[in-house]
Amino acid sequence: MPAFFDALETRAPEQRERDLMAALPGAVERAMEGAHAIAEQLRGIDPRGVATRQALASVPVLRKHELLERQQRSRAGTGPAGPAKAFGGFSTIGWGQAVRVFASPGPIYEPESARADYWRFARALYAAGFRSGELAYNCFSYHFTPAGSMMETAAHAVGCTVFPGGTGQTEQQVRAIADLAPSGYTGTPSFLKIILEKADELGVRLPSLRRALVSGEAFPPSLRDWLAARGIDGYQAYGSADLGMIAFETEAREGLVVGEDIILEIVRPGTGTPLPDGEVGEVVVTTLNPDYPLVRFGTGDLSAILPGASPCGRTNIRIKGWMGRADQTTKVRGMFVHPSQVAEVLARHPDIGRARLVVSGQMGSDRMVLQVEAQGQSDELAERIAESVRDITKLRADVQWVDAGSLPNDGKVIDDVRSYE
Fold it and tell me: Which of 117, 130, 135, 157 could be bridged to 125 by S-S, CB 3.0 to 4.6 A?
């Protein structure tokens, strides 16, 4: 069998970038024509000019809470019921064209069309070892959220038959796996562990399971090793209900390879400013999905781009994986402080390198300290920076100089270390 899902995975990186940038203007133009919420996001921007990463960076980032708020306002409006109202103007397809509708927490509603491998997880399954003619045992939920359908449509694209196990009913899951002998599992890693432990308790062997693609929660090395000791190779995939698959693990076990048909950026938290490779920031994704086109969608997740190509032979960029949440908004003396406000302070003072706002103290006695890496440190500059913090946040902060390169590269802009004991 081929080592890769298709030839796109081994394109020269320069060719991939040319292909993505060539497709981007048309995708943006169709999105603006078919989804009025996208047209509002890109108001004043000529889609034909969005043909480079630099041009794309001028588009405002759409964050998840904005998508939710837009859908909520749309559903609360007085217009006629229908898909435009349900999806808040972000979908280009309606009832009949959308074969399913799902809900993720909020609720945010997402359409699924009949296009093969709609959520684009087939590459992840293939990299995890799933092949045509096998039975995949799918333990993601089939209700409300799209996770079950994500894996089922991907497995069908690979050529697998699917058993829709869903969640719960552990003893029945053990019996079905013993009877049907699937070669692979899809679901959360914790539920696979629960099934295997229940099989031990019942004295039932499940030797057919040889591979697993897991997602939806952390997959620590200790659990991966626990599965490997039972003869199961576990791989992880990273995605969301809004975007589908973003990146996936390969046999190289070095980060996650980004999917072929998305444009991924890492931006400074609270802004839309792209960061250099290696810097930790928020994952922002533009999809080329014609049915649910999201342009510069901020996932709220932190990650970083790894240098070089994967030893597995896939040539797309890699990310480290999930490294925490980008929204570090906190409340200080009754006022919300946002990462975007810290970014605004930096923008006012070009000599500043990186900065981190540390919030300390106990309940009722908050203290803010802005730790700053900067050229030309002076009391006068510190005073100007402190004044900017007061202007922007309406709160006082001390400025503390730190050595260049001493702040951790973890994407953290606001560090709340207060004690509430």
Answer: 130
The Cα–Cα gap between 131 and 128 comes to 9
pLDDT for position 276: 94
Residue 364 pLDDT class (50, 70, 90 cuts): low
Residues with Cβ within 8 Å of residue 96, at least 6 apart in sequence? none
List the one residue out of 115, 124, 105 whose CA is nearest residue 242: 105
The sheet carrying 161-164 orders its strands as 161-164, 135-138, 184-187, 211-214, 233-240, 244-248, 256-258, 318-319, 305-306
The DSSP H or E segment spanning 118 is none
Could you give the CA distance from residue 112 to residue 98 in angstroms, rounded to a whole number? 5
- pLDDT tens profile 331-355: 787 677 888 889 899 999 988 888 9
> Who contacts 206 (Cβ-Cβ below 8 Å, separation ≥6)?
174, 177, 178, 195, 196, 199
3-state SS, residue 234 = strand
DSSP-derived secondary structure letter, 20 = H
Residue 307 buriedness (CB in 10 A; 0-12 / 13-18 / 19+): exposed
Orientation of helix 189-202 relative to helix 221-228, angle to 10°: 40
Q: Tokens 């006068």, residue?
A: 380
What pTM does this model have?
A: 0.84
